[in-house]
Design goal:
With 383 residues, the protein is α+β, with helices and mostly antiparallel strands. Helix content is 25%, strand content 22%. The protein contains 8 helices and 12 strands. The termini are far apart.
Length: 383
């Protein structure tokens, strides 16, 4: 009887020695472990253990997290920041579930599609430092957009980190894109409505708001349109005064055929250093003009129209005047390039210069005319 009890106790002790023990994150067995029935410990696989500690996740220490040789290892500070941001993300997600399906981490960037009346502003770019009050004759569009966005989000300032085309003074925009850095994830439609309440009075409107993965976005093409108002027939009528800030009036006779020939000479990849306004650090001046055309508007719907802003001033009338629409598409434009190109083409269309003079101007042999007025220029589309 005692022999049976002893054998049972010995068997229990042997099994206890074979149990798996945890050393760090690695599991080891005793030397007397018998994995297979034939005693071949090297060929057999270990059996599953009922020890519940194997499912416990190991928490690495500070030294193993930072890792001296691992440049990609995150620091404790970043881990804590991610924990805080994830907690805030979870709390906000309950309030705005449809906005948070993209899974982003701070900082956040939103892309705005804008339209504005450029006759009220001195151009897109803000002058001076942010928050600095300068005595300027006209404000900038960027300044008004940043101020309205900061007021809506109740923060000190909002930064515009990128824009597709810095329009000059009196240049209008029907579709311009810019990227804003915002402090938190927002409801895009709510943000658009709230900001437009203050911006529409200043002739600026946000057409759409979307989240972007980062502060940079690629622009492949830009399209500008230039509106020229001409009298019908041979009568020298007075220009439409209500459209003074939105079109250029040309009382001299124009040849549409010569105007189109002049534009065709500038289509393609060229160096436009002599058809732009030079500034310090101009950089690369080679651009590709995809299309350059001129048409006469047959109906009012073909002329520029704001989508959100009311159009009390853009009352196009084709009764007494014709409107020429010059359209240019390119992968990018230099400072004053569109206006210099249009001015040169108009000079040729009025038979002042021959068509061959365009090549001379582009090579720097002849000095081109001054820039055309900015009031008839529209940034029509960016994509």
């Amino acid at each position: 009887m005692l022999a049976h009890v002893y054998d049972a106790c010995a068997e229990k002790c042997r099994k206890d020695k074979e149990e798996t023990v945890e050393v760090g994150s690695k599991r080891t067995r005793t030397k007397n472990s018998n994995y297979a029935n034939d005693g071949d410990a090297d060929a057999a696989k270990p059996s599953k253990s009922n020890n519940s500690s194997k499912n416990k996740r190991k928490i690495p220490d500070e030294k193993s997290i930072e890792g001296e040789d691992n440049d990609d290892a995150p620091s404790n500070r970043n881990i804590k920041q991610n924990c805080v941001s994830n907690q805030a993300y979870s709390n906000e997600k309950r309030n705005h579930p449809r906005i948070y399906s993209i899974g982003m981490s701070p900082p956040y960037y939103i892309l705005l599609s804008l339209e504005y009346d450029g006759s009220l502003y001195g151009g897109w770019q803000r002058q001076g430092k942010q928050g600095e009050e300068l005595l300027l004759p006209l404000p900038s569009v960027q300044q008004e957009v940043e101020k309205a966005a900061a007021s809506c989000l109740e923060t000190d300032h909002i930064v515009c980190v990128q824009v597709a085309g810095r329009t000059d003074k009196a240049v209008h925009a029907l579709d311009q894109w810019c990227a804003l850095r915002v402090p938190r994830v927002i409801d895009t439609e709510w943000f658009r409505r709230q900001v437009n309440i203050s911006l529409v009075e200043k002739r600026i409107a946000i057409k759409s708001v979307t989240f972007g993965p980062d502060e940079k976005f690629k622009v492949f093409r830009k399209r500008y349109k230039y509106i020229i108002q001409v009298p019908k027939g041979s009568q020298h009528q007075r220009p439409n005064a209500s459209l003074h800030d939105y079109s250029r009036y040309e009382y001299r006779s124009l040849s549409l055929h010569r105007l189109q020939d002049a534009l065709d000479c500038m289509v393609g990849t060229h160096d436009f250093q002599y058809l732009c306004k030079k500034k310090k650090g101009l950089g690369r001046t080679v651009r590709t003009i995809f299309t350059a055309s001129v048409v006469t508007a047959s109906k009012e719907e073909e002329l520029p129209q704001f989508k959100i802003l009311s159009n009390p001033v853009l009352r196009w009338s084709l009764e007494d005047h014709d409107f020429l629409i010059v359209t240019m598409e390119s992968n990018g434009f230099l400072w004053h390039q569109v206006r210099r190109m249009i001015s040169l083409a108009l000079t040729v269309s009025q038979s002042k210069w021959p068509v061959e003079s365009i090549d001379e101007v582009m090579k720097g042999v002849r000095v081109g005319p001054a820039s055309a007025p900015a009031r008839g220029l529209y940034l029509d589309h960016v994509w």
